[in-house]
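Human: I'm a chemist; would you kindly supply sequence and structure tokens for a protein?

Assistant:
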Amino acid sequence: MSDSSTPSTIDLTDFTVWDATNVLEYATSHFAAIWIACDQSHVPPMPAYKASFVQHLQWEADPMGAMLLPCPVVTGQVEGDPLLNQILAVRVHIQHLSDALASMLEEKIQMATMAALTMSQLEGPMGELEEALSNSC
């Protein structure tokens, strides 16, 4: 009689570069299909839409890259207690993903800060340009 109450586990050490390639190929083809459908639409896409689509693709690639990083080593497992071992493994993997996400968010915050600084530096020249244009009319 098999013990069906024991949850199955996935051994991520068998996850190969070939598997990652298949995942990325699927994601790429999915986005390509969306792009083609939007491109064939009767509504012409604006440049801002195309830019946001590309930006979304880059955002999707960042988490995908974080997920494809080598998994952390799970230590402290207990012999004969599969449930506790799964809980320990989940805890280690969540911490690993949390660290990767925190790093990515920190990078995005730095980029947003630089963008805000650039925009604030452009306010003066834009005001002068606006004033010059209104005076020339």
About this structure: DSSP finds three helices and no strands in the chain.
